[in-house]
User: What shape does this take?
Amino acid sequence: AQSVTQLDSQVPVFEEAPVELRCNYSSSVSVYLFWYVQYPNQGLQLLLKYLSGSTLVESINGFEAEFNKSQTSFHLRKPSVHISDTAEYFCAVTRPPYAGGTSYGKLTFGQGTILTVHP
Amino acid sequence: DAMVIQNPRYQVTQFGKPVTLSCSQTLNHNVMYWYQQKSSQAPKLLFHYYDKDFNNEADTPDNFQSRRPNTSFCFLDIRSPGLGDAAMYLCATRTSGSPNEQFFGPGTRLTVL
Assistant: This one.
């Protein structure tokens, strides 16, 4: 079984400040990792993903996340946030196809972190 | 643009009155998912279709049913909604050839009176 823990339920920050949203996962096999963003009353949008290769992945809007296998973490960072980054962020995990098992293709989500950027 | 569409965006129903939520996609993806997301909680998978094969999660209540008449459409039927079924319902799609990236619709917010 897999599980995801997002360590902070809410993160308030001032505009242009750096931010880190923390995510830890638990799995007995290799995983794919994702960050999704959800704006109020909207669906989830994929922000970035780690499948393999370089452990540092970046999004087009300045977010980055680093896969750390030894610490089983996939923290999301942005060096300077904007008001428009205010949203809820979900970390998610799934099994790769080669890992087998019945949970292939199913996303397990963390509880979410509400990022609020203040002017 | 290829996308996942959910109708209606907001649905109000009465306690015990059946309701159907709709999802359509222009991505031609063969896997479709229904999630329930209650306020301030993570999305919870209810069931998914792999082509026409229906896969129910073990803890999905019998009150929830689904239909997928073709590749493009998928419906969520709630036979007798209770107050606890008020939530955002999210539809997502994936192609079996993709490394597990799911594409989400905007959701339908269900209110039960």
